[in-house]
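Ticket 4471: requesting a sanity check on a complex prediction with flavin mononucleotide. Repro inputs:
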Amino acid sequence: MKTLVVFYSRTGTTEKVADMIAEKLKADMEEIIDTVDRSGARGYLTSGRDAMKRRMTNIEPAKNSPADYDLVIIGTPVWSWNLSVPVRTYLTQNKDRISKYAFFATMGGSGDKRATSEAADIIGKEAVANISFTTKEVVKGNFEARIDDFCTKLSLA
Ligand SMILES: Cc1cc2nc3c(=O)[nH]c(=O)nc-3n(C[C@H](O)[C@H](O)[C@H](O)COP(=O)(O)O)c2cc1C
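Returned structure tokens:
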């Protein structure tokens, strides 16, 4: 199964999960690059506000077309109990090119359910599998067993 892991990561947590999934599934990777500087406290505040208002941003052109893959795995940090703005933008631009997809989120502690259902609303169908991780478990590094379960589910999907 040809698989693409697409993710956005502001501070590296979602990237860490994306890396591990891609390595285990031997998948290609696509990092969503935002043209807006979201660093620091100011970036945190504007990102939270943009996410709450469900705004879009300008992302760099993708390297891969999701239409070329059997499965697309989408990863986002939770922002203001929503999808991150770069992932919302990517999904909105690419929804017609995504056939089968899985979804994962990283978060401080809550908002993954809403982000997951928002992704399904944009793409217009449910994911074959969903999972979320807290920042703490990713930083501590004790999340590999849950990734193994997720990857097993995907290989059966
Ligand atoms: C603008 C902003 C809003 C956030 N809102 C939430 C939230 O609503 N719920 C939550 O649990 N974590 C929230 N977080 C924390 C991130 O989801 C979490 O730290 C995530 O793992 C960061 O991923 P990253 O390092 O890949 O950017 C927010 C972080 C940012 C920057």
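Notes from triage: The chain has a mean pLDDT of 97. Leaving this open until the requester confirms.
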